[in-house]
Amino acid sequence: MCSQNGEGKRVSPRVQELLNHVARTPVRIEILSILTDGTLDLRDLSDCLESPRTTVRHNLQEMIEANLIEETIDNEFRSTPLGRVVLDALTAFSDHVETALELEPLFSCVPPSEFDFDIRSLSAVTVTEVTRAKPYAPHQRLTALIEDATNVSGYIPTNPLLFNRTDAPIFQAADSDISLYVPEDIADTLQAEHKTKLKNLVQRGPLDIGVLAGAKIDYGVARIDDRVVILGLDEHDKPHVLVETTDETVQKWASKRIDSLRTRASSIVETDNRGMSIAHGQD
What we know:
alpha+beta; Arc Repressor Mutant, subunit A; Endonuclease, Chain A; 2 domains; three-stranded antiparallel beta sheet; 22% strand; Transcriptional regulator, contains HTH domain; ArsR-like_HTH; WH-like_DNA-bd_sf; FilR1_middle_dom
């Protein structure tokens, strides 16, 4: 992949050589990890690794030549400062890749560039994905989370199906606060199917729906009580994956994203002295 200035993002030859050296066999990363915690002689290290001494000795020698490991005057081995730094970098890299693999269903719908934070903030997540057995699982999970919540604020690019159950807990709690932002086509669907329910819920106070005119945003993001949800859509604009997290960094990102959408929204229902009227606003 090339950067905007036409130069590729390349790893320097020296770094590439060192990475190849460490990753040549899995035992080398294990050696670094063990010797970062203290010094061991060849026999004890072989026992820890459950590996033949000849194999361990060969790898130690090459790692010494790369200045990753050093031998003490007592014929024990320990990690060098460089070895410790390399191990930290490899651990961070491993965590980064592991998170990316878990989030692959989301990244297939939403470019990682949408998230202006370290994706490792998404390492502790719950992922609900479409399957053959459960083709509506993400949508159903989203609806269930909203129904049982007290505070909801966010952009939902698909019909939330909340109004099929106006006896849901969120509509009954006196302290409920629901602020949803939807694209125009979803607003039209809600108006056509639930106009009376919308009027009643807005008059009672717990519900506010804003309409976003213009281009439709390709994914949903909402804060539901103490968690953030990100909804990825497939090529047909159907829910494909729902990611949930309580990470503080992601919560801050979601709040900023939602606030920016709020400034573009106009109320789906306006109240005046003459009653209720449905109105779309402009950007």
